[in-house]
Design brief:
This protein is an alpha/beta fold. It has 2 domains: 180 residues, Rossmann fold; 70 residues, Alpha-Beta Plaits (2-Layer Sandwich), CATH 3.30.70. 34% of the residues lie in helices and 22% in strands. The chain contains 8 helices and 13 strands. The strands form 2 sheets. It has a 9-stranded mixed sheet with strand order 1-13-12-11-2-3-4-5-6, sandwiched between helices. Strands 7-8-10-9 form a 4-stranded antiparallel sheet, with helices on one face. Helix 7 links the parallel strand 11 and strand 12. The two termini are 34 Å apart.
């Protein structure tokens, strides 16, 4: 059962994971490190989150990773990621990776040549008819955002896009989240990202935080040594819940403080 974490309070689960020998802190970006904003490409990590991410990434035997449904290109833009960054990235729901000291680790594409472009071309006239709906081209498919649309517009545009994809690419994976509908030719979810990060960094535990339905793929594969943190409302397999990205910053600060003190 998910329980609320009170900022500033001691918590046995946080203390336990702070003591693990090799820790991966994996964070969803939109709605977790960053508030949800009308323009998806304008999203940036809260300054207080960025400070704690940098603190954790500088600690020995500690890795921070952003795990997102964004394509790798867009994820690097919104995270302000550079080639010398200490932050790992998992994009496209676990189909693309970037590792510190290694660089990009692109997954093999199983998308038929030209299929995503054909879908974009067919979807654009539909999306353009609806105020507040936006197309997000992705490496393995596309997303339709409705953050500034009315609920009625969202329902209508999603229905038309669902019908389009069902007709042309019925086997593509469908995902829905906070004001977004996504389709991908790849089957990977954030559960795959947890496995890849665990193996690559030989992690003894993972702390994963996320706010959306797609993040539950990752929550459900966490082990007894790991810790899941849900941001905001909704059913979740996470152990802890915080209210918003501002509280994620406070939770990361508590984690960094405890992990630092155990190494002094």
């Amino acid at each position: 059962m998910t329980r609320n974490w009170t900022p500033g309070s001691a918590d046995a689960a946080l203390s336990t994971i702070a003591a693990t020998p090799r820790l991966v802190v994996a964070l969803d970006f939109d709605g977790t490190a960053s508030p949800l904003v009308p323009d998806p490409m304008a999203a940036r990590a809260l300054p207080e989150v960025a400070v704690q991410v940098a603190r954790l990434a500088a600690l020995p035997d500690t890795v921070v990773a952003y795990v997102s449904g964004r394509s790798m290109h867009d994820l690097r833009v919104i995270t302000e990621h550079t080639d010398d960054s200490l932050i790992a990235l998992a994009g496209s729901h676990g189909a693309q990776y970037w590792y510190p000291g290694v660089g990009a680790a692109e997954a093999d594409s199983h998308t038929a040549e030209g299929s995503r472009e054909e879908l974009w071309e067919a979807a654009r006239p539909i999306i353009d008819r609806y105020e507040g709906a936006e197309l997000e081209p992705k490496t393995f498919g596309m997303g339709v955002h409705t953050r500034t649309a009315t609920p009625e517009v969202e329902k209508a545009v999603f229905a038309e896009i669902d019908a389009l994809v069902a007709e042309r690419y019925p086997h593509w994976r469908r995902r829905s989240g906070h004001r977004v509908l996504e389709f991908s030719s790849r089957d990977e979810g954030k559960d795959a990202a947890m496995t890849a990060l665990r193996e690559h960094f030989d992690a003894t535990a993972i702390l994963f935080a996320g706010d959306d339905v797609t993040d539950e793929d990752a929550m459900r594969v966490l082990t007894g040594d790991d810790l899941g943190v849900r941001v905001g409302p909704g059913e979740s397999a996470a152990e802890l819940r915080v209210e918003n990205p501002q509280q994620i910053a406070l939770l990361l600060e508590t984690l960094a403080d405890e992990r630092t003190s155990r190494r002094e």
